[in-house]
Design a protein that fits this description.
3 strands, 33 helices, three-stranded antiparallel β-sheet, mainly alpha, 613 residues, single chain, 67% helix
Length: 613
C-alpha cells in the first residue's frame, strides 16, 4: 500500500485511520518507536506537521482516503482496536476531540456519553462543537442517569427539563477539597453548563446561586501545585463574572474578572486572558474609570487571540464596545464609526444591554432623540421578554427610556420609568436629580445629587454627573461659590475620565457663566463646539403632579365608565368626582374628559408601568 519501511508505513496507517493527532499520542497508540518513525515519515514527505508543530496529518488527502478505506476493508480488527485505544486515550487526557470522533466511528454510545460528560465544555469551545451537539442530540437519554455532565448538556438542548439534574456540589471547604483531590475540576467544569443555560434563559437569580454554591469547589482548585487538575479555574471565574454582569452586579463581576485574570496562566482554551482583560476594560468603562479601562484594553490587545474558535467573535465584540464607550464619552470624531463597528443591540447575545446603552447614549449626544427611541423600540421587539425585565436590563432599559423622555421634555414619563427600577450605581438617582432641576426644584435636585456623591456604591461616572447637577442646582439657587466648587470638581473628573460628553447633560448657559472660574472648563466647552454638541436635555421640563385620588380617577376615566359609575365604585358622590375631574382639567389644561385622558396618557400619568412604547 505504501512503499516505505514497515515502521514508517505503520505510523502512516495509524494517522490515516485516526486522522490528525498530537505527536505526543503516537507512542501511546503505536508503541515506543512510533514517534521516531513519524519523524522519518515527515522527512520522506508522507506526513506533515501543522503550523504549531504539535499535530501530524497525512501529506496527501487523496492517499489518506484510499488508505483508510483499504484498511477498514482488509484489517477491520486493527482499525477497531486503534479507534478504541484513541477514544480511551483522549477520554483520559482531553486531547483534541477527547476521543469523540473515534468513539463515534465505533458507534460506542457508552464512550460517547462519558466523553461528553467529562469534556463537553471543552468540546463546546473548540472545533468539534458541532459534532458534539450532534452526538448529544442522538444519545439515549437513559445514559444521563449516572452522567451529570451529559445530563446538563441534554437540559441545555431541551432533551431534559431544566433543573432535572442535581448539581451535587460540595457544601463546605472540607468537602470541596476532598472532591477536588478525588476528581479534580470535573464537577466545576460540569457546573458551567447549567450556569450558562440559566443565564441564557434570563434566570439570573438561579445562575448567581450556582456561582455561590460552586465557590468552595472553585477555591479548592486554586493551589498551583495541582497543575492540570485545576485548569478550568480562570474560565470558571470569567463565566462567573459574566453572570454577575448580566445579572446587574458590576461590583461582583469585576471581582470575578480580577480573579480570572490572576489565574490566566492556566487558561485551557487560549482566549481567557484576552476575554478577561476585555471584560475588565468594559466594566471600568461603564463605571467611568477611563485610565483603568484603557490599561485593560491594552492588556487584551496584547493577549493571545483564537480567531479559529467561534467564541472569538464574542471576545472581539466586547473590545469593540469598550472602544465605542471611550469614543462616545470623549466626543471622539470617530465615535460614529466605533459605534457602528460593534454588534447592533437587536442581535441575540448576552451583551445586548451594553450595546443598547452605548447606541442610545450616542444618539442622545447627537441630539437625535428619534433615533434613540427607534433603537430602543427595535431592540426590545427583537429581544426575549424574559431578558428585558430582569438582570442588567431591568435597570438599564427604564433608565434609557427615562433619558429619552427627559430629552423631549416629558418629566412625568421620565419619573414613571424610574419608579421601582433598580438604581445601577446611582445612575437612576442622578437622572431623578436632573429631572428635579429641569422642573424647577433645585433644592430637591441638590439633595439627591449630594446623596449620590456621598454613596460609596456610586460609580465614578455617576458621581461626575451628580457633581454637575450640584453645580447647576447651586447656580440656580444663587449659591455661586458652591456652584463653582462643584464645577471645579466635576471638570477635574471629566478631564481624568476623558468624558467631555458629561458636560452636555447640563445647560450650556450655566456652564458658560462659570467658565472663567473653573480651570479647564473653557477647553472642554470648545471641544463640544468643535464637535457640534449641544444640550442633551431642554432648558426646562413640565412636571404635572396629581394626587392619589386624581390618579385613580384617571384610570377610571380611561376605562370608559360614566361619572356616576365611577362615583359609586369609589364610594363618593358624583359632585366629588366632578370636583376631581375639574382639578385634572385645570392641571392638564384640558377642555374635556377625552382631552384629560389623552394628555394624561402622553405624560405617562395613567400607569406608572407604562413604558411609552
Amino acid at each position: 500500500m505504501l512503499d516505505a519501511d514497515p515502521a514508517v508505513r505503520d505510523v502512516v496507517e495509524i494517522v490515516a485511520v485516526l486522522g490528525p493527532m498530537e505527536v505526543a499520542e503516537l507512542d501511546e497508540l503505536g508503541g515506543p518507536a512510533t514517534t521516531a518513525a513519524a519523524q522519518q515519515a515527515i522527512d520522506e514527505g508522507h506526513l506533515t506537521l501543522t503550523a504549531d508543530d504539535s499535530v501530524v496529518v497525512l501529506a496527501s488527502p487523496v492517499r489518506a482516503a484510499s488508505m483508510r478505506d483499504a484498511l477498514r476493508r482488509e484489517h477491520e480488527e486493527r482499525v477497531t482496536g486503534l479507534l478504541a485505544r484513541q477514544a480511551d486515550l483522549r477520554l483520559r487526557t482531553g486531547r483534541l476531540d477527547a476521543g469523540l470522533t473515534a468513539a463515534r466511528a465505533l458507534g460506542d454510545v457508552d464512550r460517547l456519553g462519558r466523553i461528553i460528560d467529562r469534556w463537553g465544555v471543552d468540546l463546546a469551545h473548540g472545533r468539534h462543537a458541532a459534532a458534539m451537539y450532534e452526538v448529544a442530540a442522538e444519545l439515549p437519554v437513559e445514559l444521563s442517569t449516572t452522567l451529570p455532565g451529559l445530563a446538563f448538556r441534554l437540559e441545555d438542548i431541551g432533551r431534559l427539563p431544566i433543573g432535572a439534574t442535581s448539581l451535587r456540589l460540595p457544601a463546605t471547604p472540607a468537602e470541596a477539597e476532598a472532591e477536588f483531590a478525588r476528581d479534580g475540576d470535573i464537577r466545576l467544569r460540569q457546573t458551567l453548563l447549567p450556569l450558562v443555560t440559566r443565564r441564557r434563559l434570563g434566570r439570573f437569580g438561579e445562575a448567581m446561586e450556582i456561582v455561590r454554591a460552586a465557590t468552595p469547589l472553585a477555591e479548592a482548585c486554586v493551589y498551583p501545585w495541582y497543575g492540570d487538575r485545576g485548569r478550568i479555574l480562570p474560565y470558571w471565574h470569567l463565566q462567573a463574572g459574566i453572570t454577575a454582569q448580566v445579572a446587574g452586579d458590576l461590583t461582583a463581576a469585576r471581582t470575578s474578572f480580577l480573579t480570572a485574570w490572576t489565574h490566566r496562566a492556566r487558561d485551557p482554551y487560549g482566549f481567557v486572558a484576552r476575554g478577561t482583560a476585555g471584560k475588565l476594560a468594559l466594566v471600568e468603562a461603564l463605571r467611568g474609570a477611563y485610565a483603568a479601562s484603557v490599561g485593560w484594553l491594552d492588556e487584551a490587545v496584547r493577549a493571545a487571540r483564537r480567531p479559529d474558535l467561534w467564541v472569538d467573535g464574542f471576545v472581539e465584540s466586547n473590545l469593540s464596545a469598550v472602544r465605542a464607550i471611550h469614543a462616545v464619552d470623549g466626543l471622539d470624531p470617530e465615535a460614529e464609526l466605533r459605534v457602528r463597528a460593534m454588534p447592533h443591540p437587536t442581535q441575540r447575545g448576552e451583551q445586548w444591554v451594553v450595546f443598547l446603552w452605548i447606541q442610545v447614549q450616542h444618539a442622545l449626544t447627537r441630539g437625535d432623540t428619534a433615533s434613540a427611541r427607534r433603537t430602543l423600540e427595535d431592540t426590545l421587539a427583537a429581544q426575549r421578554e424574559a431578558l428585558i425585565r430582569t438582570g442588567l436590563a431591568a435597570a438599564v432599559v427604564p433608565l434609557l427610556w427615562a433619558e429619552v423622555h427627559l430629552a423631549t421634555g416629558q418629566a412625568n414619563r421620565a419619573l414613571a420609568e424610574l419608579a421601582g427600577a433598580p438604581d445601577l450605581a446611582g445612575s437612576a438617582r442622578v437622572l431623578q436629580a436632573r429631572t428635579s432641576l429641569l422642573t424647577g426644584d433645585p433644592a430637591a435636585a441638590l439633595a439627591v445629587a449630594e446623596g449620590v456623591v456621598q454613596d460609596a456604591t456610586a460609580s465614578r461616572r455617576t458621581v461626575t454627573e451628580a457633581l454637575l447637577v450640584i453645580a447647576a442646582a447651586r447656580h440656580a439657587s444663587g449659591d455661586r461659590p458652591g456652584a463653582i466648587a462643584a464645577a471645579r470638581q466635576a471638570v477635574a473628573r471629566v478631564q481624568e475620565q476623558n468624558a467631555a460628553r458629561a458636560l452636555a447633560t447640563i445647560a450650556r448657559t450655566t456652564l458658560d457663566d462659570m467658565v472663567a472660574e473653573a480651570p479647564g472648563l473653557a477647553a472642554l466647552l470648545d471641544l463640544l463646539d468643535q464637535r457640534g454638541i449641544t444640550d442633551i436635555y431642554p432648558a426646562s421640563a413640565e412636571l404635572v403632579s396629581v394626587t392619589r385620588r386624581e390618579r385613580d380617577l384617571l384610570l377610571d376615566l380611561d376605562s370608559g365608565r360614566s361619572l356616576p359609575e365611577i362615583a359609586k365604585a369609589n364610594f363618593v358622590s358624583v359632585n366629588t368626582t366632578r370636583t376631581h375631574l375639574a382639578s385634572l382639567r385645570r392641571k392638564l389644561d384640558a377642555r374635556s374628559r377625552t382631552e384629560v385622558v389623552l394628555k394624561a396618557r402622553l405624560l405617562g400619568l395613567l400607569d406608572a408601568t407604562d413604558r411609552g412604547r
